[in-house]
From TrEMBL:
Pfam families to which the protein is assigned, alphabetical: Glyco_transf_25 (PF01755)
Annotated InterPro entries: Glyco_trans_25
Protein name, entry field: Glycosyl transferase family 25 domain-containing protein
Residue ranges of domain Glycosyl transferase family in the record: 46-157
Organism listed in the record: Symbiodinium necroappetens
């Protein structure tokens, strides 16, 4: 065998320099083999309806109280204070205005983002978010509960959506099936959706400072400005997260509720 080169151990190819090197040390005590808890999502553990506080949001609050009372959600949700796009100082700052009134859609986005930020602070596994003009399918709650054990890993699950950007004004004929979750981003609107903790992080990063409506933060076609976050793929139509949607749809925005005062 040929002699090893200076500074190397024969056969091992390992440096044999004289200077000391630092080695990490194994722990000197017993190790408890417990992994961190798994975040299991129950969509109804944290259920929130975005609504304008005070008299301005009263008509839509009453709509939600009636609608959710009929669909199995009485006492299982809370109202979330909507950003007032006419006066909110943070909205003005993030959108480069001296003061509001500001863009109403960006105000809506900030309302949703504040929920995501709360999820991150409180470590909620997931939250289900509604807008206050939503109408729910028959047996909405029980149909989702029947699907909980088959929910895949996700960022967002849309229980309702707007194909091609058009708001469905009536529910599907099928008002009884347990929904099937399909992968992809089916269209705009966020009147009823569940977001995971990981999804909350992604959507917060993607829309800070606020620059697009909440559904725009999910749609690759909106990511064309140089100021957008670098981790978002700006190619047209690219799905930027793990999005799933329910078929048949379980929610929509009816004309009567959508026309009520207090929309944000």
């Amino acid at each position: 065998m040929a002699p090893s080169a200076p500074g190397f151990l024969s056969g091992g190819g390992l440096l044999a320099a004289a200077e000391d090197v630092e080695f990490a040390q194994p722990v000197s005590h017993d190790v408890t083999l417990n992994i961190p808890p798994v975040f299991k999502c129950n969509p109804f553990d944290h259920t929130l309806v975005v609504n304008l506080e005070g008299p301005g949001g009263e008509a839509r609050r009453n709509h939600i109280l009636r609608e959710f009372g009929k669909k199995g959600l009485r006492g299982r949700f809370k109202f979330w204070p909507a950003v007032n796009f006419g006066t909110d100082e943070q909205l003005a700052q993030e959108t480069g205005m001296k003061k509001c009134p500001c863009d109403a859609k960006k105000g809506c986005a900030l309302s949703h983002r504040r929920i995501y930020e709360t999820m991150l602070a409180e470590q909620w596994a997931c939250a289900t978010i509604f807008e206050d003009d939503v109408t729910l399918a028959e047996n909405f709650t029980s149909r989702i509960e029947s699907a909980i054990d088959s929910i895949p890993p996700f960022d967002v699950i849309l229980w309702g959506f707007c194909p091609g950007g058009a708001k469905p004004r009536h529910g599907p004929k099928d008002q009884s099936s347990v929904p099937i979750l399909r992968y992809g981003w089916p269209g705009s609107c966020v009147h009823a959706y569940t977001v995971s903790l990981q999804g909350a992080l992604m959507l917060t990063q993607a829309n800070t400072p606020v620059q697009t409506p909440p559904d725009g933060a999910m749609d690759g076609m909106h990511w064309f400005r140089d100021r957008t976050m670098l981790h978002i793929d700006r190619s047209g139509g690219v799905i930027t997260g793990s999005y799933w949607f329910a078929t048949p749809q379980l929610s929509w925005q009816g004309v009567e509720a959508d026309n009520l005062d207090g929309g944000v």
